[in-house]
Write a structure and sequence with these properties.
Blueprint lengths: L1 E7 L1 H4 L6 H13 L2 E8 L3 H14 L2 E5 L10 H9 L4 E2 L1 H12 L14 E2 L3 E4 L8 E6 L2 E6 L3 H16 L7 E9 L4 H7 L1 H5 L4 E7 L2 E10 L2 H19 L3 E4 L4 H12 L3 E6 L4 H7 L4 H4 E7 L1 H8 L8 H17 L3 E10 L7 E10 L4 E10 L1 H24 L4
């Protein structure tokens, strides 16, 4: 099956947004054995969207669009698909009620303009969107499939996996595709690739490495006529990769980094409290959103580095300022929240000649029931990147320390 991805939105071609949806769909299609023959971007212009749809209709059996299905006048993907197929849109009563219920559940009345999100054409089947107000379309017509999904990545990804992939199964032939993703932290993409290069070069199963905000992902994909054969190939390759990268693997597939960090605490009955001075609250957000936070995460405090140092009576400009602050704050946050572990993250930024030359000093201290663990890093870059790296270093520090001290594995 051949496919074309069309990303709709003037914000994409104007350079205001990066098209991460197309990258995600390309990876997903490769895993399903779908041949992606093109990725196109088009602005919010109905004539141009229709033109791209017609080109895609000629090039492929599957057309996947993202974006342009919101409630505003410049959301034109539905109208464009209807024009391509010569079908009329109509408001579906069930969809209209679903959208109204979505607003009502939040104590709001559905705006009139959102009614267009309940439109359907005769060839379209609605795709549920539990995360937003924009249902998708799954259109079957003349040997083609047209899928229309939201442009919001979290909505699109869930719709693709839960709604679209099951409907595509009959079109994928007699081959079964099995994929597994191993998630690592504490090792860069190039370093991970070097360690498993011999396995990658075999060519089967297909192995890809991807640098993400939660570490490096390693995806293993195998296809075969029988599921058992594909699963066996993936499992054998996974065992080999774990032998080489096992110390860095914190989970697989749907395992989140926050859940992996908290798992040893949950298993041992311990709790953690966090104070972030200058790091922007990344670690607090990572942990607080996990279900396990209810029992393992006692809470966190987020402050500016200079403010925290002043309150602690520490000279913020002293050479050992970040280290001294982290040492003091780790004990203070543990005692204040009556937690078993207290983590302090101190990030001091020193301006350089340009933003790219900003110096970042990162000090991490984790005080536990029996031991204190410490780590320091220095890096230059823009402040946002320094904080991002500090967040990754902190996650790696916590995961490796808890795994060693409390047990657990990826």
């Amino acid at each position: 099956m051949r496919a074309v991805v069309i990303s709709v939105g003037s914000e994409l071609i104007d350079g205001f947004l990066t098209d991460t949806n197309a990258t995600y769909l390309a990876q997903e299609m490769a895993a399903l054995g779908i041949e992606l023959v093109g990725v196109r971007q088009v602005g919010d212009s109905m004539p141009r969207i229709v033109t791209e749809l017609r080109r895609a209709w000629e090039d492929a059996e599957l057309i996947v669009t993202t974006g342009g299905i919101g409630p505003t006048e410049d959301d034109l993907t539905r109208e464009s698909i209807a024009a391509l197929l010569g079908e009329e849109v109509r408001a579906d009563p069930d969809l209209l009620q679903t959208i109204a219920n979505y607003f009502a559940s939040r104590g709001l009345t559905m705006p009139e303009r959102n009614a267009k999100q309940a439109w359907l054409i005769p060839s379209a089947e609605p795709l549920a969107n539990p995360m937003g107000t924009a249902p998708g379309w799954f259109v079957r017509r003349d040997g083609h499939v047209v899928v229309s999904m939201p442009g919001v990545p979290r909505e699109m990804m869930r719709m693709w996996r839960e709604q679209v992939v099951p409907r595509l199964a009959p079109y994928l032939g007699d081959r079964v595709v099995v994929a597994r993703t191993l998630k690592t932290i504490g090792i860069g993409e190039s370093a991970a690739e070097r360690l498993i290069v011999d396995i990658i070069q075999r060519g089967y199963p297909i192995i890809g490495t991807y640098a993400k905000d939660d570490g490096v992902h390693i995806r293993i994909t195998a296809s075969a006529r029988e599921r058992a054969a594909a699963e066996a190939a993936v499992e054998a390759t996974e065992r080999e990769i774990r032998e080489l990268l096992g110390e860095y693997i914190y989970g697989e597939d749907d395992t989140s980094l926050g859940a992996a960090i908290l798992a040893p605490l949950v298993a041992s009955g311990h709790t953690l409290a966090v104070v972030e001075d200058g790091s922007g609250g990344r670690t607090a957000a990572l942990l607080a959103e996990e279900p396990a936070a209810i029992v393992a995460y006692d809470g966190g405090v987020v402050r500016a580095f200079e403010h925290a140092a002043a309150q602690a009576g520490i000279d913020p400009h002293a050479p050992d300022g970040p280290v001294a602050l982290a040492e003091r704050e780790a004990v203070a946050i543990r005692d204040s929240f009556r937690a078993d572990y207290g983590l302090a993250i101190a990030v001091r930024l020193t301006a350089g000649a340009t933003l790219d030359d900003t110096r970042g000093e990162v000090a991490l201290t984790l005080v536990g029931p029996e031991r204190t663990h410490r780590r320091q890093h220095e890096v230059k870059g823009i402040p946002r990147e320094i904080r991002r790296r500090a967040g990754l270093w902190t996650a790696e520090f916590l995961w490796m320390t808890f795994r060693s001290e409390l047990g657990g594995r990826g």
